[in-house]
Design brief:
Layout: H1 8-44, E1 54-68, E2 72-79, E3 87-90, H2 92-97, E4 103-109, E5 112-116, E6 119-120, H3 129-165
Antiparallel strand pairs: 1-2, 1-4, 2-3, 4-5, 5-6
Helix pairs in contact: 1-3
Length: 175
Amino acid sequence: MPQPPDHRARGAVLAVAAGFLAATALAGALGYLHFSAQIRAYRAARPCPAADCYREVTATLAEKYEESGRSTSWHVSLDTAPPADRDVAVSRGLFESVQPGDTVRARIWRGTVTAVNGSATYAAPDDNDHRAVCGYGGLAAAGAALAAGALSARSFRLVRRGRARAGAEPGPDLD
């Protein structure tokens, strides 16, 4: 007589998968909270020499160049005082409006150039707040939904198995 299949291994795999998905949801939620805190700090920053404030400096545009691949990105290199970035990704409009040798105003926040001549760069947290919602929020929602689905599937199997042991009609076999 054949032995009935051992479902403990399947349950362990489902438990590990549900734990992984729950951890993914937690990581997404924590990432969202961290990134949105950065956005709030950037929006609240005022001019001053401290690290959490921003400072505006005059810089000379050393060079500008395009990077092409799947998409095109526009960059300018600034002669600024350290610790600010020297290579800055900018919008096409700003890229076309400046030439090497031009004097520009650069806003520096936490060592990152966040604006050139009043135009936000792609490094500015304020300019990329959609990443927090779409990226981290989506990761949290997907992980939570998948974890809930895995747990409800496991619960359904346990309920069905309990009905079969009680003598009730077990319903269709999903194995």
